[in-house]
Automatic annotation (TrEMBL), chain A:
Keywords: 4Fe-4S, Iron, Iron-sulfur, Metal-binding. It holds the Pfam family NIR_SIR. InterPro entries: DsrA (IPR011806), Nit/Sulf_reduc_fer-like_dom_sf (IPR036136), NO2/SO3_Rdtase_4Fe4S_dom (IPR006067), NO2/SO3_Rdtase_4Fe4S_prot (IPR045169), NO2/SO3_Rdtase_4Fe4S_sf (IPR045854). GO terms for biological process: sulfate assimilation. The gene is dsvA_1. Residues 202-432 form the Nitrite/sulphite reductase 4Fe-4S domain. One of its GO terms (molecular function) is heme binding. This is Sulfite reductase, dissimilatory-type subunit alpha. GO terms for cellular component: sulfite reductase complex (NADPH). The keyword Iron-sulfur applies. NCBIfam families: dsrA.
Automatic annotation (TrEMBL), chain B:
This is Sulfite reductase, dissimilatory-type subunit beta. It comes from Neomoorella glycerini. The gene is dsvB_1. It comes from the Bacteria. The lineage of its organism: Bacteria, Bacillati, Bacillota, Clostridia, Neomoorellales. One of its GO terms (cellular component) is sulfite reductase complex (NADPH). Keywords: 4Fe-4S, Iron, Iron-sulfur, Metal-binding, Oxidoreductase. Signal peptide: none annotated. The keyword tRNA processing does not apply.
Length: 472, 395
């Protein structure tokens, strides 16, 4: 298996790209760091330097010192940006309220999103975060990196921005945290020309798709999550960069029902790997688990004594459909009754594997509470093959978009439109028949719509005819 | 090929569309895969967690890849990323990855390299004492907390994220570096009801909430699309109004407002944040995976705790208590939501010693489905209080 990008990728060498010299990168000593104070009093933040978990304050302070020791003309935004960010954060703790002004509309030409504008509401106190815009940079699928890329990005961002990041934003993007409006275009120029790398999405558009680690390092993966993620991202670049939707739209891709990228909760279109043939069983390995030679669940519970592995108690009795038994010392699965919850596979990964006839289940409409309440995604297509170039998935997605773009109200997520118009209407739009798999249970109320054409005689009736049979 | 070093670099503001490259998307993933990952792509047979934070994946080719997972603070600086790169260059041929919960993973191809890497990672501490790269986050423990911007970058938060996460993780460190729980516990933090991230589907979730209606600024007619502010309200508490001098404004029915802040998202003239009103709601029992039980929403179990910066002692104590009771009571493989549903929420409240108040009873649209329409319940102290109040018992 070998994946080739659709267009040649620029090979990145940090030594050729770099801005800072080694001396500039190692421009402070441990001693200096020990004695270093930022320019504001930050007692609460300094309290957060204590304790074992990595302290973002301690990290920020070394960046502040590093910037202070760089010559002023070696950074395009204020040298004190980290100091001022920490200072303003302390003020927010004191006041119990945020100190960022509402909103902010900035960006780069040609795109309608990708940059989140932000301005301080106390710029006189913290002038270097007066402008503090965020850029979303589209991460590589499942967030594998080569250090050449990361180092070059660090130089670029330290030179033209604050040097502060989020690795990563919840949607998946690399977040470059804080720069001025002036630097947005130069940043974008070098991102695209030198790093061969685009921005991610923001606004009422397709947001940056993301995926789990998939077949790169997981034996459960049923589909090529990265390839599908990359294909959808690059195929729908226009939808991602130029908002044309009623509201945001997210795509996430999980390789199996374990949901490591949480597509079912956090994307309007969730593509979740699954299979439709039998779970593969290695009976010898099942015996090894029973004999206690292999730890259950890959050893995930080894920090505590849960007793000897008991296949009946830990696997067979916990199966949600009760479709497993031990017969003559062999594990038997009635695959027709299996709902592919992953429990037995998770518990005995060396003995059980997903089937080989794989594809995706497609669920639509997950969202957070605003406006009409939180939603998990609704199972809509139980099974679809997912093989490059994924035309079937694209066709389905475009039918969904056509409908939602036409019918969706301002700031109405797909999930809310499905609620407003009903799941039956959604199925009609995408051209699939109703199936019991789409519901937890059939409706309990009898308020059933019928289409006129489905009822003999239609709906045009004359009261006079009725009265011939029924006197008033 | 080099990054530019002039003020505007190679960008020419006189001709903004000249030489513009667009729509190239992300870097292709394949070149960022380490060779062992490329070679064994799709061929993995099984994995084992050798110890907390350290996994081995075994391929049908016989190849193995060892992964060392470390906590990351999500907010990180170029200095931090460069240190990650130093480690990746030294041990991992220049490859590194991040997880969907913002941990950092270093991969090597032999166990000998794991030992050296592990030693190096644990030796790295900030001057003030915290670990830079604590190893853990695997198996049945507590891994990294998915969180949001808080006061660091957002305009609508009701609390801060980075500080709360640090305070909680400091306290739960043994669960990050150990695998002693019945199942994994996912904690997440969101600073407002927009719930960026995973708050609505986590084992334990902390959510910033307001408790006062917005203040209407008198310039609302000049800076807001008033109809957008009106339709932003989930409970129809906002209606158009006129000021005494005849300008357009909005009226807010205060008794109808539940302080979601969505009108402020749409309209800068309706600020809502308030030091004394704002705080943290605690939710529990959500999950995303389909393992055994179906995915679940998290449910509100504590309506409000104070924003006690910087260490949120009340929030931390509540989270710790829930985890300790869950650890002691739940069965193997049971997530917090599975456990709470099995024993009944009335027992959950009793065991976790959490007061139950009217704020926890749903009263939004589909609320009825959450009420108990059966006689199946367990007696706890709360039931006797109802009986006493209703006159049902004497003591």
């Amino acid at each position: 298996m070998d994946f080739k990008p659709k267009r040649p990728q620029k090979e990145l060498k940090y030594e050729e790209l770099r801005i800072y010299t080694d001396e500039e990168l190692h421009n402070y000593t441990e001693e200096e760091l020990k004695d270093f104070k930022i320019k504001h009093d930050i007692p609460d933040l300094e309290e957060l330097e204590k304790g074992p978990w990595p302290s973002f304050v301690a990290d920020a302070k070394r960046e502040a010192l590093h910037r202070k020791k760089l010559p002023k003309d070696r950074m395009m935004i204020d040298q004190d940006v980290v100091d001022d960010l920490l200072g303003q954060l302390q003020l927010s703790f004191d006041d119990g309220e945020t100190h960022w002004k509402h909103g902010g509309i900035v960006g780069v030409f040609g795109y309608g999103g990708g940059v989140i504008g932000r301005y301080s509401d106390v710029p006189e106190k913290y002038p270097s975060v007066a402008h503090f815009h965020t850029l979303r940079v589209n991460q590589p699928a499942s967030k594998f990196y080569k250090t050449d890329f990361l180092r070059a990005l660090c130089d670029l961002w330290e030179f033209r921005g604050s040097g502060m990041f989020n690795m990563h934003g919840s949607t998946g993007d690399i977040i470059l945290l804080g720069t001025t409006t002036e630097q947005l275009e130069p940043l974008f120029y070098d991102l695209t020309h030198e790093l061969d790398q685009d921005l991610g999405g923001s606004g009422s558009n397709l947001r940056t798709p993301s995926c789990c680690i998939g077949k790169a390092r997981c034996e459960f993966a049923c589909i090529d999550t990265q390839d599908l993620c990359y294909e959808l991202t690059t195929h729908y670049q226009d939808e991602l960069h130029r908002p044309a939707f009623p509201y945001k739209f997210k795509i996430k891709i999980d390789g199996c029902p374990n949901g490591c990228v949480a597509s079912l909760a956090r994307s309007d279109m969730a593509l979740i790997g699954t299979w439709r043939d039998d779970i593969r069983i290695d009976q010898e390995a099942v015996q090894a688990y029973i004999r206690g030679e292999i730890q259950p669940n890959g050893g995930a519970h080894s920090g505590r004594d849960w007793g000897k592995f008991d296949i009946q108690k830990e696997v067979i009795d916990l199966c949600p459909t009760g479709c497993m038994v031990m017969e003559d010392g062999k594990l038997v699965i009635n695959n027709q009754e299996c709902n592919r919850c992953m429990h037995c596979i998770n518990t005995m990964p060396r003995a059980l594997r997903p089937g080989i006839d794989t594809g995706v289940s497609i669920l639509f409409g997950a969202k957070a509470p605003i406006l009409e309440g939180a939603q998990l995604a609704v199972l809509t297509v139980p099974f679809m093959k997912a093989e490059a170039p994924y035309d079937n998935i694209k066709e389905l997605l475009e039918k969904v978009w056509d409908w939602w773009i036409e019918e969706g109200k301002n700031r109405e997520r797909l999930g809310e439109l499905i609620q407003r118009k009903g799941l039956p209407r959604f199925l009609e739009v995408i051209g699939v028949p109703a199936a019991p798999q789409m519901v937890k249970m059939p409706r309990t109320n009898p308020y059933i719509f019928w289409k006129e054409e489905d009822v003999p005689g239609g709906w045009k009736r004359d009261i006079k005819d009725y009265r011939l049979r029924h006197k008033r | 090929m080099a990054l530019s070093q002039e003020r505007l670099g190679k960008y020419n503001p006189e001709k903004p569309t000249e030489n513009r490259i667009t729509d190239i998307g992300p870097r292709h993933f394949w070149e960022f895969f380490p060779p062992v990952i490329q070679k064994n792509y799709g061929k993995w047979l099984y994995h084992d967690i050798l110890e907390p934070g350290i996994m081995v994946h075994v391929s049908e080719t016989g190849d193995k890849v060892f992964t060392v997972r470390c906590g990351g603070s999500r907010f990180m600086t170029a200095e931090n990323i460069r240190e990650i790169c130093d480690i990746a260059d030294k041990y991992c041929d220049g490859y590194v990855r991040f997880t969907t919960r913002n941990n950092i993973e270093f991969m090597v191809t032999s166990y000998e390299k794991v030992e050296a890497l592990k030693k190096d990672l644990l030796s790295r501490k900030y001057i003030s004492g915290s670990y830079k790269f604590p190893i853990g986050g695997t198996g049945a423990g507590v891994t990294n907390i998915v969180h949001t911007q808080g006061y660091i970058h957002c305009h609508t938060p009701a609390t801060d994220a980075s500080s709360m996460v640090k305070a909680i993780m400091d306290e739960l460190m043994d669960y990050f570096t150990g695998m002693t729980l019945p199942a994994h516990v996912r904690i997440s933090v969101a600073c407002c009801l927009n719930m960026c991230g995973a708050v609505h589907c986590s084992d334990i979730a902390l959510l910033g909430i307001h408790r006062k209606p917005p203040i209407v600024d008198d310039n609302i007619d000049s800076i807001c699309e008033i109809p957008l502010a009106i339709t932003a309200c989930p409970v129809g508490a906002i209606s158009p109004g006129k000021t005494e001098d005849g300008r357009k404004t909005v009226k807010i029915k205060e008794e109808r407002c539940m302080f979601c802040g969505n009108c402020y998202t749409m309209c800068p003239a309706l600020p809502i944040a308030d030091k004394l009103g704002d705080g943290v709601a605690v939710l529990a029992g959500g999950k995303i995976s389909n393992r055994i039980s179906e995915p679940k929403f998290s449910k509100v179990i504590v309506p409000w705790l104070p924003n006690n910066f910087p260490r949120f002692p009340e929030v931390v104590a509540t989270v710790k208590k829930i985890i300790e009771v869950y650890a002691a009571e739940a069965r193997k493989y049971e997530r917090i939501g599975d456990w709470a549903e099995r024993i009944g929420w009335e027992k959950f409240f009793e065991k976790c010693e959490l007061p139950f108040t009217e704020h926890l009873i749903d009263d939004y649209r589909l609320a009825y489905d959450t009420y108990r329409t059966s006689t199946q319940f367990k007696f706890t102290g709360a039931a006797w209080e109802v009986s006493r109040a209703a006159g049902g018992i004497d003591d």
